[in-house]
Design a protein that fits this description.
175 residues; mainly beta
């Protein structure tokens, strides 16, 4: 678009006449033209860009909804999806890879997998092992103990915790 210099007129009437001529020229498309309204729908969300089009957007234009993305007001287990989220085993009701080491098996009351040493208290036998705990409520837990057994005959121990406390270990063996 090129702009021509206009000589400064000596009177206000001359100014008004010249302005009206410029307005008429712009409205008729002659003598110069400005940007025109866009004739296509706005683009969907993408990478921000200032653009290069000479078309302008009308005040009532509407961007299409980007249905390829998850709405940011949606949540997963109460965690907003407005950023990356991390889910843990509790979020998907799965067992964690490990709850760590139990030094007193009476204290291992959260659902999970624990290791324990032969020195652990309240273990079924004095041996290193793995403990699997299922918690259904604050007053009911179920434990399965898998002590390392070098004799070749696998033995599993089980016990239940109720409101009165832990029951005795019972042996489950198979050959």
């Amino acid at each position: 678009m090129s702009v021509s210099k206009i000589a400064v007129p000596p009177t206000i009437n001359d100014v008004i006449v010249k302005l009206n001529e410029v307005i008429d020229a712009l409205n008729s498309g002659g003598g110069g033209s400005g940007p025109s309204p866009a004739s296509i729908a706005p683009l969907m969300d993408g990478t921000a860009d200032v653009g290069s089009s000479y078309d302008y957007a009308r005040a009532d234009h509407v961007h299409p909804s980007d249905t390829s993305r998850v709405p940011t007001d949606r949540t997963v287990n109460g965690k907003a999806l407005s950023a990356n989220i991390t889910l843990d085993a509790d979020d998907v009701e799965a067992l964690p890879a490990s709850n760590g080491t139990a030094t007193n098996l009476d204290d291992a009351t959260q659902t999970g997998i624990y290791s324990y040493a032969s020195s652990a208290t309240n273990a079924p036998v004095s041996a290193n092992g793995t403990l699997l705990v299922f918690r259904t409520s604050s007053t009911y837990q179920f434990q399965l103990a898998f002590p390392n057994n070098s004799s070749g005959n696998p033995v599993i121990y089980t016990r239940i915790h109720r409101s009165a406390g832990w029951g005795a270990w019972k042996t489950l063996s198979y050959s």
